[in-house]
Write a structure and sequence with these properties.
about 20% strand; 8 helices; 6-stranded parallel sheet; alpha/beta; 9 strands; 3-stranded antiparallel sheet
Length: about 230
């Protein structure tokens, strides 16, 4: 089951998401690590701006940051999802470096996948099948309904039980490291931030019963997923 909420524009969407995230953090047990996986794309920049406006740095005590996916580029590259969060969120809020678990893209892909998996597993509970239970995953959605770096037609991702894996995407930069479908299914909360009227058809297709789009597969694997849009699907 998915909850879908439409907002007047992307600013209203990200302001709401930021407020909800901070409310979730205020209710948590601050004595245990809270794990969040961030996304790439255009909408996170606005989300981070809203969070910085609303938050005190102490709101993120013991919050540990991971990524739903990362491009295999240096962490200083403008295509880096880490750099987007570092510039927009971590530096303004002075998040301690020990709470930031970026994908080590300077390593080999095999090593980067293993390091990302190991760090995530150290800070999360695990399901019976070994999947880590991330507290909150932010996902964007492409016009082809891809989420993270899980693209249509990628049968290996559908079959894989890996927590993270390296994949080739259809757009540059092509090499990516992404969470897999099982990790998204296991997360406590998944929030999809879908912005742009051009994505309306992809969302409609994903919400349909039996959908085999990447987002559709995520929705069908979970009891509840929160979808926030600036259009009516």
């Amino acid at each position: 089951m998915s909850g879908c909420t439409a907002f007047a524009d992307k600013a209203a969407l990200t302001e709401y998401a930021a407020a909800q995230w901070l409310e979730l953090l205020a209710k948590r047990d601050a004595g245990r690590p809270f794990t969040v996986a961030l996304s790439g794309g255009r909408i996170p920049r606005l989300l981070y701006e809203s969070v910085v406006e609303l938050a005190r740095p102490s709101a993120f005590d013991n919050v540990h940051f991971f990524w739903g996916d990362e491009r295999v580029v240096p962490p200083t590259d403008d295509e880096s999802n880490f750099k987007l969060a570092d510039d927009g969120l971590f530096r303004p809020l002075q998040i301690p470096i020990g709470q930031v678990h970026r994908v080590q893209t300077e390593c080999s892909e095999t090593e980067a996948v293993q390091l990302a998996t190991d760090e995530l597993e150290q800070l999360t509970d695990s399901q019976a099948d070994g999947q880590p239970v991330i507290d909150l995953v932010f996902l964007g959605m492409g016009e082809d309904a891809h989420v993270a770096s899980l693209f249509p037609g990628d049968t290996e991702s559908i079959e894989s039980k890996a927590v993270y894996r390296a994949v080739t995407g259809p757009k540059p930069p092509p090499r990516r490291i992404t969470l897999g479908y099982p990790a998204l299914a296991a997360a406590r909360e998944v929030w999809v931030l879908a912005s742009g009227e051009g994505k309306a058809e992809a969302l409609r297709a994903s919400l349909a019963k039996g959908s085999d789009t990447p987002l559709g597969r995520v929705l069908q694997s979970r009891e509840h997923t929160e979808i926030l849009t600036d259009f009516k699907p």
